[in-house]
Amino acid sequence: MFLFQLPDDVLYLILSYLDYKSLCRLSQVCRRSHHFTVRDPVWRRIAKDFINTGVTRHGADLYPTIPLKDRVKVSQNWSHGVCRKDVLLKWKINLLPWIQLDGDVLYLSQASDIGAYHLRGPEGVKFQHNRVAMFSGHQEDVCRFALTDIHLVSAGSDGKIIVYDRKSDFCMEYFGHNQEVNCIDCKGHLIISGSRDKTAKIWALTPNHFGKCLHTIPTYDRVWSVAISPSLCTFVTGTACCENFAPLRIWDTERCHLVSCLGTEFRRGAGVLDIVYESPFQLLTCGYDTFIRYWDLRVCSRKCVMEWEEPHDSALYCIKTDENHMIASGSSYYGVVRLWDKRQTRCLQMFQLTSTTSSPVYSLCFNATHLYAAVASALYSLDFRTSGHRPRR
Ligand SMILES: *[C@@H]1O[C@H](CO)[C@@H](O)[C@H](O)[C@H]1NC(C)=O
Ligand SMILES: *[C@@H]1O[C@H](CO)[C@@H](O)[C@H](O)[C@H]1NC(C)=O
User: Fold this and answer.
1) Residues 6+ apart with CB under 8 A from 126
2) Same domain assignment for residues 173 and 63
3) For residue 201, what are the CA distances in angstroms to 156, 230, 324?
4) Percent of the chain, pLDDT > 70?
């Protein structure tokens, strides 16, 4: 084949215009064709078009160590809902667990503690025995927590915020809220917390100012969710919508004034439970009004640019995005996890985690091959990868 005598970069460019099926067929023609068609440059365009391949809308690669071709293949399983469900952990009482994934370590809050579990422990070892760290100190339940490279910052029903050093035993308590701290976010040197006491607070996360509350913003409504913009200049609060205030408000982190309100019509009780930024201008929100909404602040703050409705009319407790086409959401009944492709109005896939008991999906997270979801009394994993052999549990 003369094609393969072309210079590599020219060849990659030509091959990158083939579609998924043609590339797969070509790779089976001969050893040489296989050699060239497994390379990442050939797959980049397709990977950007498929869901959850780890290639973001801006072209960044979240999992550079795994060949793109493999990720495009696994992506088909996400699209078709092909996966294996496992219960990683069960507990006896109903809790409001929150989870976060950091590489191979999953952080899980259970009642007043947060455990860090290694997900790739030795073969045959039960999940709970792979705990590598434990963070304690709250007198009541942990509501939410956030991770940075160095810290774990938790918000508790006891009104406290605790900043833990992830690598050592050092931790520091922040006091200031009068009631439950429902939500927290942490980026750069800023912590933002939101509470039932109808305030949001800005705290410093720099060694000289540990524990210092920089500002208190009265929100006149209970705060259920907060998120700091990647630009660090603003943050958004999601409130209960029980008073006459817009449930989504953007604030300036320096001067603390109200920058804008998102949306114009609010149903009473349409509280916002989760907010995720995709860029300094784009964010996703969800909550009691059963919609996922996509806002683009460059276009308009009065109206969202897209919205997706939970088909069973359930509240949505949590959302995550692959920073490209896919959104995963957790519903309030029967542990329903949904996958959405932003290019479609209808839900792409749904997975019901609990059949006998009804529980919200309080929290979820995923990488290119696995999705983890926490309900009131269990932690589940969905594995979309090559089936391989099943680890014993
Ligand atoms: C996702 O996480 C699981 C568990 O840590 C790991 O085995 C898998 O390799 C990860 N996948 C990617 C694409 O990073
Ligand atoms: C997709 O899922 C099926 C069933 O679990 C599995 O056999 C297959 O290997 C998966 N594909 C990839 C690329 O992991």
Assistant:
1) 393
2) no
3) 14, 18, 31
4) 98
Dihedral in degrees, nearest 10, Cα atoms 149, 155, 161, 167: -30
Residue nearest to atom 6 of ligand 1 (CA): 104
| Pair of tokens at residue 24 | 């797969």
Q: Answer yes or no: do 55 and 88 share one domain.
A: no
Task: Single out the residue in 33, 48, 78 at which a domain terminates.
Answer: 78
Amino acid identity, position 161: I
Residue 3 scores a pLDDT above 90: no
Based on the domain organization, do 170 and 54 belong to the same domain?
no
The whole-angstrom separation of Cα 153 and Cα 162 is: 6
Q: Which domain holds residue 308?
A: 80-383
Q: Domain containing 69 — which CATH number?
A: 1.20.1280
The answer to whether the CB of 120 is under 6 A from ligand 1 is yes
Q: Looking at residue 229, which CATH number applies to its domain?
A: 2.130.10.10
CA of 1 to the centre of ligand 2 (A): 32
Ligand closest to CA 366: 1
Which of 35, 54, 78 corresponds to the end of one domain? 78
Judged by DSSP in three states, 91 sits in coil
Residue 342: half-sphere exposure toward Cβ, Cα within 13 Å = 20
Q: Which residue has the tokens 């109005």?
A: 345
Rounded Cα gap, residues 32 and 54, in angstroms? 27
pLDDT tens digits for range 181-191: 999 999 989 99
Distance CA 185, CA 276 (A): 11
Which residue is associated with the tokens 């359930």?
A: 314
Q: Are 238 and 221 in contact (CB under 8 A)?
A: no
Same structural domain, 207 and 352: yes
3-class state of residue 340 by DSSP: strand
Summarised one tens digit per residue, pLDDT across range 6-21 is: 898 898 999 999 999 9
Query: Is the pLDDT at 376 greater than 90, yes or no?
Result: yes
Does one domain contain both 53 and 157? no
Q: Confirm or reject: Cβ of 370 under 6 Å from ligand 1.
A: yes
64 close to ligand 1 (CB < 6 Angstrom) = no
pLDDT band at 104 (very low <50, low <70, confident <90, very high): very high
Quote the number of domains for the chain. 2
